[in-house]
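User: Batch of two.

Assistant: Item 1 of 2:
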Amino acid sequence: MSYKQQLARRGEQLAAEYLEGLGLHIVARNFYVGHDEIDIIAEDDKYIVFVEVKSRAQTKSNMRYGRPAMAVNYQKKQRLIRAGEGYLRQNKPHKQPRIDVVEVYFPPIHEDTPIDISRLIPLKIHHFRNAVIKQRYYYY
């Protein structure tokens, strides 16, 4: 597994723990509908929450690309919406759907630095509720 894949996996793990700390129950992780993926699906009494996680190590090269959430571009938003609708068709949770983005910031590290990424502690986590808004969800 590549360095970036390890960092992404650790970010998803920490985001899931963060969401559980907010009282959400994790329903699924890395859920696929065709080629579209949702990193985390969580729920509470009112919402079914589809979560996209973006993780970054704080390096000068990463800083020039802006915030991690900015990587959720139009195409990614459309894939999240399609995957969310696919989940709703398959599972019919009868809760209000919501798409959130969670950013996980890690300390500066480099790919060639020998470090156990599974023990890496984040500098901060940002949670954007309703980061992707669709006018209407269809239940089939």
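Item 2 of 2:
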Amino acid sequence: MRRQGQVGVALITVMVILLLGIIAVLAAARSGLLNEALVGNDTDYSRTLAAAEALLRDAEIDVRGRLPNGFYCASNPLNTGSEDVQPNFVGCRNAVGGNPWFPNDEIEYQLVANAVAVSPAATPCLQGICVPASLTTLHNPPAFTIENNLPAMAPFGVRYGTFTRTGAPALAGSLATNPILRPPFPVAVDAPNQGWYWVEVFVYKANAMGPRSIGVPPSGGSPFIYRITAVALGQKPGTRAVLKSFFVPNPAT
């Protein structure tokens, strides 16, 4: 019988199938890595946004001077009543030694403004309390902005729980489940997993800041409007969440 020689068709077919399989595997791996990166970025931003929201609420507690359960931030442990505040404290702040606090009237506002005046003119803030000259001093371009000048503003910001956790910021931060809210050691500006808040204090003027711009004006006894800025940095480079809000703790109605 006559023998026919091999022409190698089967080998070529197997090589083509193998090449197509390799391409399919590489495409699947690339798609998986892309999906993982997208999920990682989304998770990091969600965690960062949650931290910024927590900082915003922490700033509101700081302004009110009361914890969510109704107790003062600096309740006097020597007394049984929750309404008793530690000596020299105003709300959550120790109002002696040149420390600023959130004022209760316009006389205290001037005292706080004098305490904050020791800061540079571009950064009229001290311990997270800012007394700017106008609404546009720290925000609208091309003027100075808080979130775009973190190297200059971070030293004047407040970390989570610094004043609202009964004077134990390190302990309070270590108990936080979100790593952004924990105090970093050592503290480094623009390092990942950090967050701060700043509170600007404004005296309400009906002719300059009417109800249309603020919604509900404050009461005459405490005519203050607070603008809160919370900035949180995520674990990944470039992840950042910025939240701003106007806060009126004592509305007129």
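The chain has a mean pLDDT of 78.
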